[in-house]
Amino acid sequence: MTDTTASKAGAAARAMILPLALAQFIASYAATNMNVAISALAQDLGTTVAGVQTAITLFTLTMAALMIPGSKLTNIWGRKRCFILGLIIYGIGGVLALLAQGLPLLIVGYSVFEGVGSALMIPPIYILVTVAFPDVRARARYFGVVSGAGGLGAAAGPLIGGVLTSAISWRASFGLQVLVVAWIIWLGRNIADPGPAEPRPRFDLTGAVLSALGLFFVVLGLLQSRTYGFGVSRADFTIGNTVVIPKGSISPVWLFVAIGALFLLWFFLHIHASESKGKAVLLPLRLFRNKISNLGLGTQTIQWLILQGSFFVFSVYLQEVWKYNAIKTGLILTPGTIGILVASAGADRFARRHPQRWLIIAGFLVTAVGMILLLALVRANRSAPAEATRIPIVPGVSIRPVLMALYFQTSCR
Question: CA–CA separation, 71 vs 57, rounded Å?
Fold first, then answer.
């Protein structure tokens, strides 16, 4: 009887992986599928390429600013409730973007609603896996599955988005997201979640505001590099009619980053003061004393910067310079999808058979080689068709599922 009960519990735990992996897939897909439809969106909505790029970056900005508060809410509202609520908000955003006739509604639906929904539904995904699989090896395996689904969603976004945009319309891509989200909600109804512990912690509103503002200004500053550059400002930075930073001075990127850093410093000082008084905080400082956690978070940050940053730049370049349509742009980025599929399939095996340190080093070395090849092979004086067949899509990003499996396997020991 005990074996039967344990077997049923194990089957239920494995069944919950499908909706969790699908949710991570669709959240990552949303961050990259729009890139190949930039030209089509600008033409259809009567806006500019810069306007569509703004919508894309605002989505990332919203998600980044609210991810920490979203994580804390899982401890207050419950993991399953946060997960389903995030999916519902995300789905509403998809419907609004689908019906958009201009840039404002696209920003509301895609940038705001889908960004908020992602910030609510992504943190519970990994917490639910942790709770469902107490065995370290099983947990590492399924973390690799979920993380691989996220990487696959980011890599497949350009291809799927390109096919849908060329064959039907960019609206079909949002329609697909809505359908998948509805399916995930239906699958997620049977997710087992014991609920938040009692007494429920207090939500640190001050910490949430400070962390959101800090991340907002840091990310906003980095986004300004597109206009002003990183070093010397390429144009006058004005507020109203007043020139705050003249052309040729230091880039205003660092002004925004400095403001964000000050808010983040205030955030950490607030946490330190609150912890010393025994109050509930948004993010315990002890998390930053864990070297394995810091390594995992650092590698994740770098991998996502490379994956999404390179895909964003490639997509815009292919459409605006080489005048490729959506499906051609998606096909050029397909090798990245293949690499992530291969690495996802072997993530658990790699983690068990090879030293963890060497796998991480190998992943970043392959990434560096991919970027060097890209810079060497893509030249402005080459013809577009000839160069398109030679673009190496950063093979190192395919190591991401391996890194995730390693991180969660070691951090739980």
Answer: 21
Alpha-carbon span 29 to 59, nearest angstrom: 12
Nearest partner of 318 among 49, 30, 48, 107, judged by Cα: 49
pTM above 0.85, yes or no: no
Determine the Cα–Cα distance for residues 214 and 310; give it in Å rounded to an integer. Answer: 25
Specify which residues 245 forms β-bridges with.
237
Tell me the β-bridge partners of 239.
Answer: 242
CB contact set of 137 (below 8 Å; sequence gap of 6+):
409
Q: Tell me whether the omega of the peptide bond preceding residue 199 falls within 30 degrees of 0, making it cis.
A: yes
How many CA atoms lie less than 13 Å away from 176 in the CB half-sphere? 21
| Residue type for position 93 | G
pLDDT higher than threshold 70 for residue 392? no
Q: Which residues contact 105 (CB under 8 A, 6 or more apart)?
A: 96, 97, 99
Residue appearing with tokens 């990434």? 367
Amino acid letter, 380: A
* HEC secondary structure over 314-368: HHHHHHHCCCCCHHHHHHHCHHHHHHHHHHHHHHHHHHHHCCHHHHHHHHHHHHH
| Location of structure tokens 């200004």 | 217
Lowest mean pLDDT among 43-57, 83-97, 137-151, 337-351: 337-351
